[in-house]
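In practice, a research group might receive sequence data for several interacting partners and want a quick structural hypothesis before committing to experiments. The following worked case mirrors that situation: the sequences arrive first, and a predicted assembly follows.
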Amino acid sequence: MLKILHKRPWFITNNNSYRFTDTNVWESTQKDFTFYVEFQLDETNTGDTHCVFCRPGKHMGVFTKNRNLITWDFWDSVDGESRFNDISFYVGRENLYKRYVMIINHDSVEKRFKAKLICKGDTDEDEKSFTNEAEYEGELHDYTDTPFNFGIANYEHDLSDEHKAICQYTLWRAGLFDTVYTFQQIEDFLHTNKDVKRNLIKPLPNSIFLINTNELTKYKAYDNSGNCFNLEINIGLIKKIYGVAPYRTLDVSILGDERTFI
Amino acid sequence: MSTDNNWNHHENKHFVSTKNKLDKVGCGFCLAKWTQVTIQMQTGHTHSCHHPKTHKIPVREIQRNPSALHNTMFKKRRRKEMLEGKRPAECDYCWNVEDNSKQFSDRIFKSNESWSLPHMDEIATSDWRADYNPKYVEVAFSHTCNFKCSYCGPAYSTTWQQEVEKFGGYPTSDNFNSKERHIEEDKWPQRQTEHNPYVEAFWKWWPDLYRDLHTFRITGGEPLLSKDTWKVLDYIIEEKNPNKNLQLAINSNLGIDSKLVDRFIDKINKICDEDRVKEFIIFTSVDTWGEQAEYIRTGLEFNRFWDNLNKILTKCPRVNVTVMGTYGCLSVPNYIKLIDGIYGLKQTYGTSDRYWASAVFLDSSYLRYPWHQSVQLLQDKKWKDTVLEQSKLMFFQGVPIFDHNYIGYSDIEIQKVKRIYDWMNADVDPKHLKMSMQNFYRYFNAHDERRNTNFVKTFPELEEFYYKCKSLC
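A structural hypothesis for the assembly, expressed as tokens:
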């Protein structure tokens, strides 16, 4: 597991480093895709909006809202007008800080998102799950120029906290395929490969990134897809948050929760 | 909402800028031809940059001018070509990389170094005939060595020389490492007992050279078995006004007697504790992991090597160590273990007391000579994929941003392994490949007979390839 600390966000680049792969991560969420993320929020997250994962801008991703909702947000545009959409799951304040898996698939032809939220229990019997879906009319907003952010939505000094949506949480896994898979296929995949490090026990085709947090360095979590879209600590953004000049070294080991750091 | 939070970098702007500046002078312009030199005293050979073949230093030139250990007339003619926009043929290693991949070649890396880049304008406007005091100097005082690595030869190793004296060259098509070939190329090393005019010229040049040096590196043979190495260390220890900007580097196979290692550690600490140099770097070599590494480097005891490496990193808290991996076909199966092992050392010994917090570097260069040990022999896709996986692992274990305070693999370390993969995918002449595969079998078959080794037992992963090579003979 990986602790994503307050104001210490991580990200997956939307670029193709060293040309290790021909897979285009940047356009991967424009067409058919399936995304999953397994997470548990810290109880220190008491704001109205917190970002588990998103592609920023007119954002798309997994959020918690009002301390009682877990949502999948996205935008589309109709006749040049941007419209906000979401799939919301009411979990209640008493359940917000439990461990969840969210699975999303997007059918670009049908213009439909389907979502499943699984609340993990101590045993399989305790596990509860909910499904929902949303259709949209227009064109899905273009996210190709944006990174895949974890623990923060955006950062600019003049943005409100709601738009920054900083979040501290534990991440277990996150993954993306450029294919529509059923929820059951993803659940089977996650179950089979839950303890893997560098090699999957049973892969699913067409993966873009498959982050496991069983294999970590100080700065990265391992991508099992083979595409090398590792989850990385976002040094540049952290420097920006703390006002550290770009040319100065930021010692990530001494940075912790900003509230104790200051 | 803004999307301006993607700060990751994927193309080093410094390298791009350096390449542009070099190309303005000429597409073959490389500062290393001026700023860098390797001098092999045992054979009287030199080259600037380790990729071109060495050439002989005429004794008459050094008698008149000891700096001709570097500024030979041969080299000046190559400089002339570079300044006139030509690509010297001897630098084809870089042309190969530049023409077959999108990676930067060593021409860019070497010219971008702090011992090169500040001198670009001065060199670009210089006369090709002028003498130039190099900033990065490598010398081998002698070829005394207790190892005989499979790709090395008598010019660099006394144990190799003894083997060739006893058995002759290897039964490959080019009669690998034969005495006759060495004599033909004027590379058969002279005896240790004979007067060496190159060493004599060096000590004449040294007081002047020492002041201008950015980096001084002693290679071999095994340098710790040469008295001139200890003489350099004592010179620096005793010098009243030491060149404190000097980066001192010493090669060692770290397979020598522990008393010598302890003596070496004492000298290092004296020099570092009194700030007599800016940086002390130790270069050592290993080409893969464990028993397979021992096979490639005859004389190596891998565990002793690894213990000595740990001992130096423990007892010398300000030293950086570079492990040079000469990446040949025998490196492929288990190089990933070396990558993991070096990463472990980086984490264990990483500290801000060292100039580079990553205490250890893995510098992987593909083996060109002899071609019968090159990775290009392994044309099967699974071996190419294996090398790609190795570079991917290094990327995962890489630093987030190029900065000497982060601990992990740097951009250069990663690119050099990725470059090996790109090189494996370059076109290979089928006739040349067949001949080299035949030579592969002939060489290692004879190796097993001479050195009492067992290729197939040591490299079970390459058993099929070995017999395929045999079937071609």
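Before designing any experiment, note the following. The first helix of chain A runs from residue 161 to 164. The CA atoms of residues 91 and 157 of chain A lie 31 Å apart.
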